[in-house]
Design brief:
homodimer; 15 strands; 341 residues; 24% strand; globular; alpha/beta; seven-stranded mixed beta sheet
Chain lengths: 341, 341
Amino acid sequence: MPRAVLFQETGGPEVLTIEEVPDEAPGAGEVKLRVLAFGLNRSECQLRAGTYPMMAAVFPSRIGREACGIVEAVGAGVEGIAAGDWVTTIPNVVEVQRYGVYGDMAIVPAGAVAPWPDGLSATEATAVWQQYLTAYGPLVAYGKVGKGDVVLITAATSSVGHGCIELAKAAGATTIATTRDRAKRDDLTASGADHVIVTSEEDLVARVLEITGGGGARVVLDPIAGPGIAALADAAAQGGEIYLYGQLDRTTTPFPLIPLLRKGLTIRGYTLWEIVLDRMKLNAAKSHILGLLGSGAIRPRIDRVFSLEEIVEAHRYMESNRQNGKIVVAVDPAANERRKP
Amino acid sequence: MPRAVLFQETGGPEVLTIEEVPDEAPGAGEVKLRVLAFGLNRSECQLRAGTYPMMAAVFPSRIGREACGIVEAVGAGVEGIAAGDWVTTIPNVVEVQRYGVYGDMAIVPAGAVAPWPDGLSATEATAVWQQYLTAYGPLVAYGKVGKGDVVLITAATSSVGHGCIELAKAAGATTIATTRDRAKRDDLTASGADHVIVTSEEDLVARVLEITGGGGARVVLDPIAGPGIAALADAAAQGGEIYLYGQLDRTTTPFPLIPLLRKGLTIRGYTLWEIVLDRMKLNAAKSHILGLLGSGAIRPRIDRVFSLEEIVEAHRYMESNRQNGKIVVAVDPAANERRKP
């Protein structure tokens, strides 16, 4: 019998349990995968905890949207995907209670299935879509970042933060990454950050203005919200764009009205949903990302790999904010070496 | 000796005084006008009161940016403008302490001088630029409003509100205008508002959703800020754009984080400065507006005309919020009938 991670109530990491589940065949439009590895995302911690702003869990619920694996079977009407294919999944699934991928077997809608990028191991292949697709929206589709632009990336040690640094660098921009933890400075530099601001020790606004010769950052990517917004507005350039894509700080966010008016700033709420639920945008994004992976311009950074049995510990680790890159669960113990044949 | 409106300190309307000033010749790059009429704008009340978010007055100060008149003389290096020309002024002057136009004579930079639109009286000609240029940015340059779009315009009885209704209608959009005062409903309808919401009596969000079949407004134009922002975010469509162009409500503005994230909303601070200080944008905007005036698609709506001697009363009237359209001061008592020869 397949094993899946389930939760029956919201709460701490311990609400996640590994259960045997019925070995179903895929229904119409569905694809069944043998999961080799899956990636963890912050939104899954929030869904589990009941704090995800976009939706609430429906119990009993599976969890997880980002996996790689080998197709076991396809349901009626599925074209272009066949048993034996090595594939990844795009995090575009709304009905996660049924389609969650944490486990050794998963059933997902065919529209969630994407290519396994050439040359990536299973632990890397499961770490592609959430981070680069999230970065793609503000940096490429909307912000149209290019040479000469300065991009400020907060909470930069998350997997999405790394994805933002890499995509901004690939576009020719100058990147400023922030972290609270001075120990992560060198890792961020290694990931391509041109400048690192340790916010627990340095004045963010002063440093950004110093780095930019007083001009400020044209594009800001922030998953935190909360009181830090005031400094981001002060650090933004005239006509700057602040993309808010999360709410890690759950205290009240002030409205930076005066800099907004004085500098003609844009603050835009953004979630990955607007890319992954729009077929045209998604296709453009996938092509862009596969191209950059193929050329070696970007490569997922894996922080730590857990086993399936360690899922509670893996969630706990994500919530400790000690990571620097992607947290992956290797369902296949050899996932680090498994490559598409 | 010319007479000009001056103020020596911030305060209520009574700080404005009419003083005789030296009859100067225009300097290099300057144009001297005999003023026939000038328009009042909210930002001038704020500058006078010391609450203008964009800048503070430098005393002693002239005041006002929007006038029409006849060129008396031009300074060195001014081309394309000659004594005897009937002209208007664009509100693009930063050094208002010297270049303010409230008075019977004004000196302005040549870059502030614009054509007098054909067929408009002096009271109308002085009421063109602030309202239509302000509306142009969010509706045309940025929001690219067109057929099928729903535009929500708050505080719609101001001159800029009227300009927004007219420009949105000219672009083919459906317009929803708000006012606190039910007595102004018919006037807004007469100005082209497809729907009017009286916010003192009706639920703004419920009405917008009802009018739009649940979809919300794609573009929102708001000069108020303050707590009302929450309702505007709830009334905005998925992917909607809220342009904040003022701060009439000086209480704290809450940050509508959840609708911002859920709907991928954009909130953009906007002031007319970004159009009028950018030559390319300004030229495009002027052509657009002169074209619509020429075809009769738009026409300034004059609320009330004061004499120069009534300047204190005119400011007091603007701050009473009783107006519905443009407040003009006719320096020439026959300004209503004066037309470019």
